[in-house]
């Protein structure tokens, strides 16, 4: 197993916004970027009775994000993702070299 840093927050806080919860449940959202680690690969979380498993955790520069990454976040384009993130976090600036943790996940199938 790869050595990951300690978690900054509970996995239950990984996906919280109502629209993003719905996008996750519908399979349109399969990633969440955070400044810290919220869950490790193999760990599960629940959204409205559905169970999801973290399939991958990696670091990424914001400047390396693509439209495909924004789609995996549940947004139609990188521009829309960036605009909404900056609107949600007043005073934040988009820094191309800023590193974030990319949590990838999928609905758990038994």
Automatic annotation (TrEMBL):
It comes from the Bacteria. InterPro entries: PUA-like_sf. This is ASCH domain-containing protein. It comes from Candidatus Methylobacter oryzae.
């Amino acid at each position: 197993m790869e050595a990951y840093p300690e978690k900054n927050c509970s996995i239950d806080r990984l996906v919280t916004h109502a629209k993003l919860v719905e996008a996750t449940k519908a399979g349109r959202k399969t990633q969440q970027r955070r400044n810290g680690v919220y869950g490790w690969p193999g760990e599960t979380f629940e959204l409205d009775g559905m169970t999801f498993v973290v399939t991958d955790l990696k670091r990424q520069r914001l400047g390396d994000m693509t439209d495909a990454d924004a789609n995996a976040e549940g947004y139609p384009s990188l521009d829309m993702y960036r605009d909404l993130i900056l609107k949600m976090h007043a005073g934040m600036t988009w820094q191309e070299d800023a590193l974030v943790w990319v949590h990838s996940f999928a609905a758990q199938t038994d």
